[in-house]
């Protein structure tokens, strides 16, 4: 390569690991020399990294993770940006394309601080920044209290270690990527279906330009298709950071098998369903769920 390929990323330990995964995949796919500076990782600090004392929904939602990266990409300061796909808004700028996704990792949540949700002490306090996790936990254990828990993985585990909470929930994929394979206990899908796009790393480029084709070479098509179905469900629901929604798509041959769950904030009411079909399955399941949802659930979705 005559010039280095610039990958934009957040600066958290997990984000840097994921950017490194993308760099290594690009080097392998294109035969670039690993020690010749062919791929440069450019750290861009986001608002979401700077503001740690409030819920995302109160201060701008998922755009807090993406707007600075978007600006750098649109300004030509980087060639591509690496994202945890569950942090990327469903509506993206027209000039930006999701050019590839790496193969998805473990999509489950892990409970840290107890052996199971049933084993949490009565009136336990659980730290989480996720409305979905709080709602699912409330559905399973109405006695449990949830409190806002933000920060990177080490920050959250540190708060748990000093006794600020009894337990917390984190994504298995992130823990594994940080080498914490033995941290926590996986929560079964029948208790906690994951967030849409959980465990997927996406790479965005400009719609027009040479970077898009270079990035497309590392795309894992089944992951991309599954995550696209989950994001289509979110878009059809008009879900935002306040909306407790869970979804998981699995590719079965040519079909997409999509499961989803919508809940009220405390999980006292919910609706769930599944559908198999083509690439329109996300919107179809969203419409089915909204048609069957209790009014208390419906008011959190569809605008």
List keywords for this structure.
five-stranded mixed beta sheet, 11 helices, 303 residues
3D structure, described in words:
This protein has 303 residues and is α/β, with parallel strands linked by helices. It has eleven helices and 13 strands. The protein has helices at residues 13-30, 47-50, 56-59, 63-74, 131-140, 153-161, 172-177, 210-216, 221-237, 281-292, 295-298; strands at residues 5-9, 39-43, 80-84, 96-101, 109-112, 125-127, 145-147, 167-171, 185-186, 201-206, 245-252, 255-263, 270-277. The strands form three sheets. The chain has a five-stranded mixed sheet with strand order 2-1-3-10-4, sandwiched between helices. Helix 1 (13-30) links the parallel strand 1 and strand 2. Helix 9 runs parallel beside helix 10. It is globular and about 60 Å long. The relative contact order is 0.15. The mean pLDDT is 92.
Strand count, sense and barrel status of the largest sheet are: 5 strands, mixed
Structural class: alpha/beta
If you average the pLDDT, what whole number results?
Answer: 92
Percentage of helical residues?
25-40%
Estimate the global geometry from the Cα principal axes: globular
Radius of gyration over alpha carbons? 19 Å
Helix-strand pattern: EHEHHHEEEEHEHEHEEHHEEEHH
Percentage of β-strand residues: 15-25%
Total number of strands: 13
Intertermini distance: 47 Å
Major beta sheet, strand line-up: 2-1-3-10-4
